[in-house]
Amino acid sequence: MVRLSVNVNKIATLRNARGSNVPDLLQVVRDIESFGAEGITIHPRPDQRHIRYQDARDLKKIVRTELNIEGNPIPEFLDLVLDVHPDQVTLVPDAPDAITSNAGWDTITHSSFLKEVISRCQKAGIRTSIFIDPDPEMIRGALHTGTDRVELYTEAYAREYSANRVAAVKKYTEAARTAHEIGLGLNAGHDLSLENISLKTKLNKNNIKSTN
């Protein structure tokens, strides 16, 4: 079953740019859930240029679906996650000055580090996910970290979608199969839109089987 978690970072960006509480992040989140979203995702960064650490604490009190907090597991981020106790933490290897996430984890090189972080979160009862490129080797490496899920980094899919949507999804389908075969849960995200997440419907109309 496909479930939609909405990233509300840009709502916070608009609010911060105005220097007030307009738009009201908490009210927007309430509205998004009422419209049918099945989760809320936030990605607080060290400079707090959009989602602030306090936002994470405030959202924990009002989110009624599923709260997913993404971020690079630096000490300050881990302290926040363990304090807020979201439903899920997604570990992302982005640099502090990154405009947006731009790569997945090398789960082989960073296996020991990821194991340690994941163990801490799981001991606190928080489900874990690793942000990862659609590479079967990296997915198999993720299994050895003890993570519950992987999140496929979908920027390449979104970029290539308009040219050839069948080709664009191919490596993600293969990656999803690998994750399924080894027993890892699967998420996907980055630059997804109303247009490019309608792939399943468009493919089925052409009698081409798609895989979630």
Name the quaternary structure.
single chain
Total helices: the number is 9
Which term fits the overall shape?
Answer: globular
Q: What is the typical, i.e. mean, pLDDT?
A: 90
Question: What's the CATH C level?
Answer: Alpha Beta
Rg measurement, Å: 17 Å
Number of domains: 1
Write the CATH architecture name.
Alpha-Beta Barrel
Output the CATH topology.
TIM Barrel
Layout of secondary structure:
Blueprint: E1 5-7, H1 9-18, H2 25-34, E2 39-42, H3 53-62, E3 67-71, H4 75-84, E4 88-91, H5 111-123, E5 127-132, H6 136-143, E6 149-153, H7 155-160, H8 165-182, E7 185-189, H9 199-205
Helix pairs in contact: 2-3, 6-8
Short description:
This protein is of the alpha/beta class. It has nine helices and seven strands.
Explain the overall architecture:
- With 212 residues, the protein is of the alpha/beta class.
- It has a single domain, classed as Alpha-Beta Barrel (TIM Barrel), CATH 3.20.20.70.
- The protein has 9 helices and 7 strands.
- The chain has helices at residues 9-18, 25-34, 53-62, 75-84, 111-123, 136-143, 155-160, 165-182, 199-205; strands at 5-7, 39-42, 67-71, 88-91, 127-132, 149-153, 185-189.
- It has a 7-stranded parallel beta sheet.
- The longest helix is centred in the last third of the chain and has 18 residues, at 165-182.
- It is globular, with a radius of gyration of 17 Å.
Index terms:
43% helix, TIM Barrel, globular, 212 residues, 7-stranded parallel β-sheet, disordered C terminus
